[in-house]
Amino acid sequence: MLQAYPNDVNFVYKQFPLPATMHPNAMPAAKAVGAAGKQGKFWEMHDIVFKNNREIGFDKLKEYAGQIGLDVARWEKDFNAPEVQQQIEKDMADGRAADVQGTPTFFVNGKRVSNRSLDGFKQMIDEVLKTKG
Predict the structure, then answer these.
(1) Which of 70, 89, 109, 133 has a CA that sits 20 to 30 A from residue 99's CA?
(2) DSSP character for 15?
(3) pLDDT tens digits for 65-80?
(4) What is the pTM (predicted TM-score) of this model?
């Protein structure tokens, strides 16, 4: 969508990890990604975590931080920083306020996407653009 609408679409990503009772490593994985973002490597950590989603204990997350070229000591400090946890909690609160039940959930201009095909997204975006002129 960003390629199809380079001047009209912004992509906003919010973290919404599963509860620890369902997935004990979801919050640590979210914190790992958030901490990597402090060094400008949010998406690199996001991608390696999702690629290796069965191996995301803390030691593995720390290993991934090194693999993507992070200052691992700084990453570990950021991983444990209250502001990283608080940002994730804010993202989760935003998700709950928007009635997000699971991931991924997509919205176009505040409206939940039901048809998540390329054509479905384009139809919603085109409708918004037409309405806004």
Answers:
(1) 133
(2) -
(3) 999 999 999 999 999 9
(4) 0.86
